[in-house]
Here is the input.
Amino acid sequence: MAELVAVEGDITTQNVDAIVNAANSSLLGGGGVDGAIHRAAGPELLAECRKLGGCATGDAKATPGFRLNAKWIFHAVGPVWGGGGGGGGDRVEDALLAGCYRRCLELAQKHQVKSIAFPAISTGVYHFPPARAAEIAVKTVLEHVQGTGVELVCFVCFNREALAIYENLLSESPCDV
Here is the structure.
């Protein structure tokens, strides 16, 4: 059974087996969560990411955590929000975002991770609407966490507004699955 929780804080300081990096497709660092993780993990992370050859949107790749508390970093490349202008574009963006969470849970199972911390993927400079992104995150995790061996899923929120969104969703959903 996995417990799902939301906390406000810094993902780089979480005491979990794996943290998820909201990465860009190069995996070579950037701003926001990505930059913070690269700074906290140290230069070894950049050297390791150079070996991975980038990552497709909706996918994720694993590296060691280096100087972080977490043993693993799962680098997930979320979609850039295009405005959900209909014509299926919003469904494509939703599916790509869900793919990030699903793929991270697959990596968690592969690397025998018991606890994992997710940021709000794509909601920063990629402009995915926070409430929509949170719904996709919680729904996808609930649908795919069983059988992975993951016991704790932590949604790490950068601010109170994001925390309130996740707390509301988790209060409506079974938080032990």
Observations:
- The chain has a mean pLDDT of 94.
- The chain has five helices and six strands.
